[in-house]
Amino acid sequence: MTTELYSGDCLQALALDHGIVEIRLDRNNEPVNKLDARLLRELDLVLEQLRTHPGLRGVLLGSAKDAFLAGADIAVLWSMLEWPRQQLLEFCGGMQRSLTAIGELPVPVACIINGYALGGGLEVALCADYRVLAADGQVGFPEVGLGILPGAGGTVRTPRLANGTTALEWIAGAHTYKAAAALKAGMVDAVGEPPQLRSLALDWLGRAIAGEHDWKGMREQRTSGFATDEAAFTAAREQARKASRNQPAALAVIDLLQDCSSLSRDAALAREVQAFAGLIQTPAARALVGTFLASQQLKKKNRNQAASSRRVQRVGVLGAGIMGGGIAYASAVKGMPVLLKDVAQKALDLGTGEARKLLGKQVDSGRLQPERAEAILASISPQLDFRSFETVDVVVEAVVEDLRVKQAVFAELEAQVLPGTVLASNTSSLLIRDIAAKVQRPEDVVGMHFFNPVPLMPLVEIVRGEKTREEAVATAVSYAIAMGKTPLVVKDCAGFLINRLLGAYFTAFILLIRDGADFVEIDRVMESWGWPMGPSYLLDVAGLDTLDKALVILGKAYPEVMGTAFETAIQKLAGQKRYGQKTGAGFFRYEADAKGRPRRSGDPQTYELLATVQPQGPRAIGDEEILDRMMLAMILEAGRCLDEQVADSALEIDAGMRLGTGFPVHHGGPLWYADAVGATMLLQRCERYRALGGLYTAGLGLHNLAARNGKFYGSFAP
Question: CATH second-level architecture of 3-281?
Answer without folding.
Answer: Alpha-Beta Complex (3.90)
